[in-house]
From TrEMBL:
GO terms for molecular function: ATP binding; ATP hydrolysis activity; transmembrane transporter activity. It holds the Pfam family ABC_tran. Keywords: ATP-binding, Nucleotide-binding, Transport. This is Putative ABC transport system ATP-binding protein. One of its GO terms (cellular component) is membrane protein complex. InterPro entries: AAA+_ATPase, ABC_transporter-like_ATP-bd, ABC_transporter-like_CS, ABC_transpr_LolD-like, MacB-like_ATP-bd, P-loop_NTPase. Coiled coil: none annotated. It comes from the Bacteria. Residues 14-250 form the ABC transporter domain. The keyword ATP-binding applies. CDD domains: ABC_MJ0796_LolCDE_FtsE (cd03255).
Length: 257
């Protein structure tokens, strides 16, 4: 049995089974997730799309152990999150999860190297300097280690955020609109970098509204009203855009009924 769960954690660092999440109660209750079952295989790049309010952020937060499902189960790196205390969840997140946000969330007074090592130091561990140099090299910033965020372009700042995410060797990187604040060319650069990292074995789950960004993923999940209504494997930009349009039209028709 132990072997099976160990294997599962390697093959699929994040698994959600029948996850429901309801915010509030009574008349004001909102069902943000209405029975989501999905696993994100190791070394895969998944995009999560859907209309505003469809539950994308809630899915990310539940999958990362930042928010607790109302029912259903989440396994992160083989560990069932059910019944875990806040302290235990924090430890699991530190070990296995990293985030990249639209706003890069870097510390302006710290240089690239210091930003990348900060989470490890805050977790009370000594950074692995060779690995830190390696991730900074992977994001193409070896010549900029002593620069502060204010001295870097938007794309370079997002690459620092990605290096910071990789520094702790996370089982999974959750990215919430990572290219939302970037111009088209810089966004493509960052997406190509993410693709390269996946090729090297990293698991990435990315929320995006952008069909171009989603087209870099191996699999695109479409959420509507808290449920995964369809998926597309390795889709082109046109296929993603047309699925979004179709789901938007269906939602509009439902509202008009
Ligand atoms: N903390 C909260 N308290 C109450 N309701 C919430 C909370 N967080 C989210 N919701 C509601 O849950 C539903 C899903 O929200 P969520 O933020 O997950 O959607 P989303 O698809 O990420 O939206 P967007 O694309 O606009 O960011 C929405 O109706 C939202 O208003």
């Amino acid at each position: 049995m132990n072997d099976v769960s160990a294997m599962t954690s390697v093959e699929s660092p994040v698994q959600l089974d029948s996850v429901h999440k309801t915010y509030g109660s009574g008349d004001s209750a909102v069902e943000a997730l209405a029975g989501v079952s999905v696993s994100f295989p190791a070394g895969s790049f998944t995009a999560v799309m859907g209309p505003s309010g469809s539950g994308k952020s809630t899915l990310l937060h539940c999958a990362a152990g930042l928010d607790k499902p109302t029912s259903g189960s989440v396994r992160l790196a083989g560990a069932d999150l059910k019944g875990k205390s806040e302290t235990q969840l924090t430890v699991l997140r530190r070990q296995h999860v990293a985030f990249v946000f639209q706003s890069f969330n870097l510390m302006p007074a710290l240089n690239v190297e210091q930003n990348v090592t900060l989470p490890t130091l805050l977790a009370g561990r000594e950074p692995d300097r060779a690995w830190v140099n390696e991730v900074i090299a992977r994001v193409g910033l070896s010549q900029r280690v002593k620069h502060r965020p204010g001295e870097l372009s938007g794309g370079q700042q997002q690459r620092v955020a990605i290096a910071r995410a990789l520094a702790a060797r996370p089982a999974v990187v959750f990215a919430d609109e990572p290219t939302g604040a970037l111009d088209t060319n810089t966004a493509l650069e960052v997406l190509n970098l993410m693709r390269e990292l996946v090729r090297a074995g990293q698991t990435i789950v990315m929320v995006t509204h952008d069909p171009v960004a989603a087209s870099f993923a191996d699999n695109v999940l479409f959420l509507v009203d808290g449920q995964i209504v369809t998926q597309l494997a390795s889709p082109g930009v046109e296929a993603v855009a047309s699925m979004l349009a179709q789901l938007g039209a269906q939602a509009k028709a439902r509202r008009q009924r």
